[in-house]
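Quick one, tokens below. Sequence please?
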């Protein structure tokens, strides 16, 4: 009885709201078909595209991470290359300074040697000139001595007398 009562109240409620079993089943089947068509032709392609987009985003993020890592490595290598070049330039500059200092020292030594040679040559030349002048003075002195002797003695001196007087005077000169 209760079941009849429930069934009669259900059919009254269904009639009151306009529910009919045949129409309900037809609408339910149409809804299931429509849901299947939408799921197959609408949702699955959209889900595939969303999955493809998610995969591409992940690949992009991975590529971005690799790029940042490679950029950091390149920058690090660049800093290393710059430091190495700086060190090499310092070494080459120091080497050039040492070479310049050696060259300057060699040139100074050569200039000193050349100056010493010029001074030595000048001294030798002065000594030679001094000897020549001494010889000339000795000759003039001997001639003057011979003239003085000739005047004092009043005698005309011969060539041999001149030589003897010159030799004796030259021997007494410093």
């Amino acid at each position: 009885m209760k079941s009849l009562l429930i069934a009669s109240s259900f059919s009254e409620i269904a009639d009151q709201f306009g529910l009919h079993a045949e129409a309900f089943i037809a609408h339910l089947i149409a809804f299931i078909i429509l849901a299947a068509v939408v799921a197959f032709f609408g949702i699955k392609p959209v889900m595939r595209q969303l999955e493809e987009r998610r995969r591409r985003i992940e690949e992009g993020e991975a590529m971005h991470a690799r790029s940042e890592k490679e950029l950091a490595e390149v920058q690090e290598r660049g800093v290393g290359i710059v430091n190495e070049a700086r060190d090499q330039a310092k070494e080459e500059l120091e080497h050039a300074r040492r070479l310049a200092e050696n060259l300057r020292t060699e040139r100074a030594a050569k200039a000193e040697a050349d100056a010493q040679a010029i001074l030595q040559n000048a001294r030798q030349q002065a000594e030679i000139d001094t000897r020549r002048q001494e010889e000339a003075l000795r000759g003039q002195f001997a001639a003057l001595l011979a003239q003085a002797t000739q005047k004092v003695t009043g005698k005309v001196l011969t060539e041999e007398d001149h030589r003897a007087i010159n030799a004796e005077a030259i021997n007494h000169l410093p």
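The chain has a mean pLDDT of 83. The CA atoms of residues 166 and 172 lie 10 Å apart.
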